[in-house]
Amino acid sequence: MNIEVTASTLHGSVVAPSSKSLSHRAIIVAALAHGTSILTNALQAEDIEQTIQALRQLGVTIDIQGNSLSIQGSGGKLRAPDKAIYLGASGSSLRFLTAVAGLVQGTIVLTGEKRLCERPMADMIEPLKAMGIKIRSIMNNGRAPIEVTGGQVIGGRITVHANVSSQFASALLLIAPFAKTKTTIHIVDARSKPYIELTINVMRDFGIDVIKSGDDTFSIGPHQQYQARTYAIEGDYSSSSYFFAAAAVTGSSITLKNLNTHSIQGDRYFLILLEKMGCKIASRDGGITITPVKRLRAITADLGNCPDIVQSLAVVAAFAGGTTKIKNIGHLKHKETDRLNATATELRKMGIQAKNDNDSLIITGGTPKGTAIDTYNDHRMAMSFAVAGLGAVGTTVVHNVEVIKKSYPELFKDLTSLGANIKETI
């Protein structure tokens, strides 16, 4: 499916979707807990469905009623499935559940679609071996399919390199309470650090004591148990960035509800960046309102900790006066697509000067023009360039937008409710 997008003026408010990152973590922790947990406001999207279906294959009972989940915890006692666990395009599911598979007595194979099997896993395989888990890349290339033979998590002092993804570190943390000895995880060159903090917060909320030493070392005592609870999942700043960006590029005022203004989500930083570009941000009446200015200004931004808002910022930069540099983002080459190259390529098609190197995007703002946009099977490409079309001159056609089902299936519906001119085409 494609969409046609034309210039729009937006107004009103919308409820932010639930956090994908917190939904993944809370579902997995609840599945490993003792007792039955109730998760409210869980995200409904393909990536989350992949995690739920995989946990069901491992013997966890999960009942879904709307956006609430009832999860009967396994206490870490999972069963080996009778077939491979297929995880579609979900990198989060692959990384977290590869570690979880280490708790299972038996052998498990985890795989997914072509791009998922191209994403690096070597920096996670070696630390899991150090924890006592038998694991290998079936193709011997440090990528999925991954075979795990678990049931013996030893613990100890583990070093994990997280410059490709912080999820490697989060995955090890999630299973550390089941180790036979104290586990100390030392994280080297971590990107996206706020996501590690999210993991630790969820673990603590479910009863685990995590001791932090400095910025990069965490210790978890052995034989701890996750405890079931009722847990509300907050709104997502990553997905909300598309609305904030839309307000900025269309000169509109929009309010987002269901956002925790004290959240530790790293992508809340997007609001600070928009303020630097000239927008006004106000928190009131349970919502966050953005009011734009007539002319946005360029900035330099380090988004090493916030990779999921890079494309949102890049789109806003295309409308700003001056040259914006987004740096420390080399790890985006290993996402659903090479987001550095893809973003620069599509901005150039809209008539904007944009270039990338191995670690940054450099964008000189101007007047974006409608064109045909390729999405590279990447949900964030589809969502961010739909936003660009709302402010561009002429018609923007965004191809293969069904990929947004991965994280935010209702985005275009929600944008349309604010007045966006978005039309589905075949």
List strands and helices in order, with pairings.
Blueprint: E1 2-6, E2 11-15, H1 20-32, E3 36-40, H2 46-57, E4 61-65, E5 68-72, E6 85-86, H3 91-101, E7 106-111, H4 122-130, E8 134-137, E9 146-150, E10 156-161, H5 167-175, E11 183-188, H6 193-205, E12 210-213, E13 217-220, E14 230-232, H7 237-250, E15 253-257, H8 269-276, E16 280-284, E17 287-291, E18 300-302, H9 310-317, E19 323-327, H10 339-349, E20 353-356, E21 360-364, E22 372-373, H11 379-391, E23 396-398, H12 411-417, E24 421-425
Parallel strand pairs: 2-15, 3-14, 6-7, 10-11, 18-19, 22-23
Antiparallel strand pairs: 1-23, 1-24, 3-5, 4-5, 7-9, 8-9, 11-13, 12-13, 15-17, 16-17, 19-21, 20-21
Helix pairs in contact: 1-2, 1-3, 1-6, 2-3, 3-5, 5-6, 7-9, 7-11, 9-11
